[in-house]
Amino acid sequence: MRPYELTLAGAAAAIAAGELSPAELTDSVLRRADEVAGVLNPYVSLRHEEARRAAERAGRELAAGRGRGPLHGIPLALKDLVDVKGQPTSASSRVRDGHLAAEDSVVAARLAAAGAVLLGKAHTHEFAYGLTTPQTRNAWAADRVAGGSSGGSAVAVAAGAATFAIGTDTGGSIRVPAALNGVVGLKPSHGLVPTRGVTSLSWSLDHVGPLTRTVEDAALVLAALTGQEYAPLPDGDLAGLRVGVPVNHYFDHVTPEVETAVRDAVGRLRDLGAELVDVHIPMTRYVQAVQWGLMVPEASANHERTLRTTPELYGDDVRVLLEAGELFHAGDYLRAQRARTLMRREWVRLFEGVDVVVAPAVPTAAVRAGQESVSWPDGTVESVPDAYVRLSAPANITGLPALTVPVGRDGAGLPLGMQLIGGPGGERTALRAGRAYERTRPDAGSLAPEAGSPPAALAV
C-alpha cells in the first residue's frame, strides 16, 4: 500500500511505529495530488515546499519525543474559506484577488498546534454559495458534479490527494460532497468548532468540520478542532441505542437505489443491537422556506459593500442570489428565525425518544455536470441545489450534529451516503453508530478510482 492510500488512523499508527515518516507520507500525498490535478482540480493552490518543510519539522519533533498527538505529521487540505496568516483566502472568487489573511483562523491555529501538515487550499463553490463546486470534478466520475460547497475538500480526500480535509457546512456543504464522493463528512453542533477567521456565508447556519476516509478519522480530527483530547470510540454492538427511522420527508423523492442502500444500512444497525423507532420529522413543509429565509439575507448582508462596488467580479449564479437577498423584508427574516426556534424545539422533543436519526444524506447520486434539475416519478421537478439541500438543511436550521457515511453505490458505481443526526451535543453518539456500521463494510475507507475515471458498478 502506498502511503497516500492510508487512512488518517492508519498513517498515524505507521508514523508512531516508525514505519513511515511524515516526510514520506507528505511526499506521497503531494505526488498523488499532482497526478489528479489535471482531471479533478481539487486545489486552488498547493504549497509543495512549505508542506515538505513542515513534514520534516514534524519528523524531527517526533524523533525528539515531542509528539503532539495523532494528527502530528498528517497532511491536510483546508477549504479556501479558512484563513492562514500570510496566505490568500480566495473563496474561489475574483472578488478576493490579492487578499492575504492577517491572522490564523482558530481552526488553522488548532490544526497547526496538533502538528498537521498543510498541503494547500481546496476549491469551494464561490463564497460557499452553491451545491456543485463547478471548477472541481467528482472523484468517481469526472463528468459528474463534485458536490458543494466543500467539493474540493471532499474530492481531495476521496482521491488520496489529502489524508483529511476541512470543510464548511451551511446547508449541507460538508455532507453533500462527502456523500457524492464516497467519504465521511461531519457537521458538528453549531458553535462547537469556532468559525472566527472563516469566511462566512450565513452566520447563523455556518459550521466547520472534517472530511475524512473513515468515521474514526473524523473523530480524531474533531478532537483537534475542539481542542479536546481524543477518546477512542467504543467497539462492540449497539445494544441500547435507539435509532429513529423517519416515516416522512427523508425518504420522499429519493431514488430507489438511495432508499435501498440506506434501509439496508438501517438493517445492519438493527443487527448490531440497535432498537429501531419510527419517527415523524416535524415541520417539514417549512424546511426550504426557513433555510433560504435565513441564508439568503444573511449572505447578502455579508456582501453588501462589494456587491455594490464590484458586482461584475461575482459569478452569475452567486450574484443573482446575493441581489435577491437584498429584496428580503426584515419581517420575512424574523419569521424565518421564529420558525427555526420552533423547529429546533420540536427536534429536541423528538430526541427524547431516540438517540440518533438515520436518513439519506442526498436524494440521488452525483448528477452530470451542467444538469440543472432533477425530475421525480410523480412529476415533481427540483433544481439540483434544492434537491441536494432538502435532506441536509434540517440539521443546519436546528444546529444539531450530523454525520454522513458511505453506504454503497448505485447502478453506475457512484457513491451513496447516509446521515446520522444526533441530538443536542450528540456528536459522539452519531460517531459511535457510524463507526459500528462502517465496520460491517469491507470497502470502508477505500479511495475513488484512478483520477476520476468511470467506476465499475457495484451492488450495495
From TrEMBL:
Upper classification of the organism: Bacteria, Bacillati, Actinomycetota, Actinomycetes, Kitasatosporales
Every Amidase domain range: 24-430
Origin species: Streptomyces longispororuber
MF annotations from Gene Ontology: catalytic activity
Protein name: Amidase
Matches recorded under PROSITE patterns: AMIDASES
Disordered: region residues: 439-460
InterPro entries in UniProt: Amidase, Amidase_CS, Amidase_dom, AS_sf
